Amino acid sequence: QMADPFLYNTGERSRYGCLGHEVEIEHIKAYVCRPSFFTDKAVIVIHDIFGWLFPDIRYIVDLIAGHGYITICPDFFKGTEPWKTTDHWADFADWMKHHDPMKVDKEADVVLKYLNEQCGAKKIGIVGFSWGGMAVHHLMLKNPHLTAGVSLYGIIRDSEERYNLLNPTFFIFGEKDHTISYDQITLLEEKLKQYCRVAYKIKVYPGQVHGFAQLKPEDMKPDDKPYIEEARKDMIDWIKMFI
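Predicted structure:
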């Protein structure tokens, strides 16, 4: 039962003037931001349920690009409607059936090909938030071309094949996220210890709710700011360690 799972207020957000531009790759639109110098390193950002146009996710793209990566956020909903703040949570399960974060392989392949062939990217990482965090978890089990991944508060679906990651993956959670119980995180930790043959990390940030790491500075509460900044630094550090 999904009763209003996303506590973070998406209604009263400040606007954001983007630094990047939009491109079209085969059947997918995408938002891209590049650093000012040449690099062969890239990061794919997977948006949450609010989609690729949401200001918070574009802010994250620009932030990662500022660390020296060609950064791209494709529309993994392929032009279909994202979840809207006005939608009713009673309809969420039905919406999810048509927006399955485990069915992103084809789009990921299209974007990887674009980054390789058009942008000259040799090493490619991936980060994803919420819905995108689930997609990252899935892709890190399936796609050997992704050098490293960061899954931020992706709901964990328990099944034996969820733990044999192909490349280093970092899982970020908020302590007060009521969509992901502490038991699920503990289980993830136990199973990774058992099955995982690559580097992995799990970190839980005190007092943080679902969606905490995406906020722009002006939307952060002072008490949460240090944890949000720490999570973002940890995310970038993980990427830099492997890419």
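Summary: DSSP finds six helices and eight strands in the chain.
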